[in-house]
Amino acid sequence: MSDSTAIILKQTKGGWNAAIFIIVVEMTERFAFYGLASNLITFLTNELGQSTATAAKQINTWIGVSCMFPILGGFLADSILGRFKTVLLSSFIYLLGIVMLPLSVTVVARRMREKVFFMALYVMAVGEGGHKPCVMTFAADQFGEANAEEKAAKTSFFNYWYLAIVLSSSIAVLALIFIQERVSWSIGFSIIAGSVGIGITIFLIGIPKYRKQVPVGSPLTRIAQVIVAALKKWRLSSTRHPYGLCHDEEDHKSESTNATKIVYLLARTSQFRFLDKATIIDEIDHATSNKVRDPWRLCPVNQVEEVKLVLRLIPIWISLIMFCATLTQLNTFFLKQGSMMNRTIGDHFTIPPAAFQSIVGVTILILIPLYDRVFVPMLRKITNHHSGITSLQRIGVGLFVATFNMMICGLVEAKRLKVARDHGLIDSPKEVVPMSSLWLLPQYMLVGIGDVFTIVGMQELFYDQMPETMRSIGAAIFISVVGVGSFVSTGMISTVQTISKRHGEQWLVNNLNRAHLDYFYWVIALLNALSLCFYLFIANRFVYKKLQKQDK
């Protein structure tokens, strides 16, 4: 089944009534993930005794692996299992990993604790591999393209999907961190496991309401067929085709008289013209026209356009890597930075450093409804675009905010270092620097603003611009850029440590009062600025998918 293939939509299923069950399971999964990730550096440094730089690299590697496994999960969903079965199976694997967390800090012997803990983390990463690329696409599949009402609902869906994720992650940051640090880590981990178990139960209750799409074989095979067919005909002219072009898809089938069959054909585009040679009917194809078409020699126009869709997204994906590398600072250096500043309220209450991440969530919770209910309707009147602004414009705004934010981070850290020097605290890393942690509010708020634009825009772009049969892989590709960003962040830390040590003074050491985290932030800001320029160059030449609808 491709974009030219019939999408069978049972009119009594799907919509918000079905999507709400899927949103709940995602909320519990995100509650668990952020309840763990947001304070993981504290556990690794305080409980397992790792250094700050080592813990940061461990976290980045784990997040990176968690975000790379979805490529395999998306492939299995689109080609073999289907999105529903993949979500269900991966959720149970994820639950297994989470159940291992409290066991690692209670039942397991102390000498084995670190090994079992990291084993649990990577079992969770395997579960995320199936869950992440499929759960959002499966929820979005509940809104069809058949009518304007459902299409408009799908636009709002991406905003409220992210809103739900942020709500659950904010609750996790505010509640679980206090339990982990003030009560016990084992109870905090047990709450995480219980939430995922509840989410899976609710997901199972919603089964009768779901629209499910049947997997149709490897979508990668369709891509390979186009490339091979184009290479076989590389001598042919792209503009001359006396026998015409191949337009027929062979998988148009009606499955039910009670269903509505909607066929979407991709409009032909002029980009990547070499691939168009795969659609040209030459003498050999014409001589065998009464036989079954050889898919490795002749491909329909629609199939070729599907491959073009994927190719167009690759440069966009590359341009987003630095943005995702920037996000990893939220769970690592932002947290250690805040731990050395004055976080007291009154005489007895001290805010845990990780709790500041809730500011990101609160910012998003405020902005997304405003964006959807105020900003989008206002811009619709100006642009006549159903989303107010395009996905690429939305992403671009977020990239600019991220670049500006890292400049702010550099200035705030420079101010903190100056205060530490002025008070003689350079060699007293355990002493609190007499500078209010409220100075960190702008950088946390700007992370939230950037996410509202870029993350949601990425989700929508990589869902909408992928072929129908590759939307799980599209989500996996979107998630994988977060993983690659985490690996890039790890690489930057190692590179900065090596180069700065070679030139006399290491920038990233355990004692942040002697470190130069501000320099590191400025390096990230510069790389972000370069990525933004590259993004603008690519986005200005991007061709959006155009569909030609046929009802049969």
UniProtKB/TrEMBL annotation:
<keyword id="KW-0597">Phosphoprotein</keyword>
<dbReference type="Pfam" id="PF00854">
    <property type="entry name" value="PTR2"/>
</dbReference>
<dbReference type="InterPro" id="IPR044739">
    <property type="entry name" value="NRT1/PTR"/>
</dbReference>
<dbReference type="InterPro" id="IPR036259">
    <property type="entry name" value="MFS_trans_sf"/>
</dbReference>
<feature type="transmembrane region" description="Helical">
    <location>
        <begin position="519"/>
        <end position="539"/>
    </location>
</feature>
<dbReference type="InterPro" id="IPR018456">
    <property type="entry name" value="PTR2_symporter_CS"/>
</dbReference>
<dbReference type="GO" id="GO:0071916">
    <property type="term" value="F:dipeptide transmembrane transporter activity"/>
</dbReference>
<dbReference type="InterPro" id="IPR000109">
    <property type="entry name" value="POT_fam"/>
</dbReference>
<keyword id="KW-0812">Transmembrane</keyword>
<feature type="transmembrane region" description="Helical">
    <location>
        <begin position="354"/>
        <end position="371"/>
    </location>
</feature>
<feature type="transmembrane region" description="Helical">
    <location>
        <begin position="475"/>
        <end position="499"/>
    </location>
</feature>
<feature type="transmembrane region" description="Helical">
    <location>
        <begin position="313"/>
        <end position="334"/>
    </location>
</feature>
<feature type="transmembrane region" description="Helical">
    <location>
        <begin position="444"/>
        <end position="463"/>
    </location>
</feature>
<keyword id="KW-1133">Transmembrane helix</keyword>
<feature type="transmembrane region" description="Helical">
    <location>
        <begin position="185"/>
        <end position="207"/>
    </location>
</feature>
<feature type="transmembrane region" description="Helical">
    <location>
        <begin position="160"/>
        <end position="179"/>
    </location>
</feature>
<feature type="transmembrane region" description="Helical">
    <location>
        <begin position="392"/>
        <end position="414"/>
    </location>
</feature>
<feature type="transmembrane region" description="Helical">
    <location>
        <begin position="87"/>
        <end position="109"/>
    </location>
</feature>
<dbReference type="GO" id="GO:0016020">
    <property type="term" value="C:membrane"/>
</dbReference>
<feature type="transmembrane region" description="Helical">
    <location>
        <begin position="61"/>
        <end position="81"/>
    </location>
</feature>
<protein>
    <recommendedName>
        <fullName>Major facilitator superfamily (MFS) profile domain-containing protein</fullName>
    </recommendedName>
</protein>
<dbReference type="GO" id="GO:0042937">
    <property type="term" value="F:tripeptide transmembrane transporter activity"/>
</dbReference>
<keyword id="KW-0472">Membrane</keyword>
<comment type="similarity">
    <text>Belongs to the major facilitator superfamily. Proton-dependent oligopeptide transporter (POT/PTR) (TC 2.A.17) family.</text>
</comment>
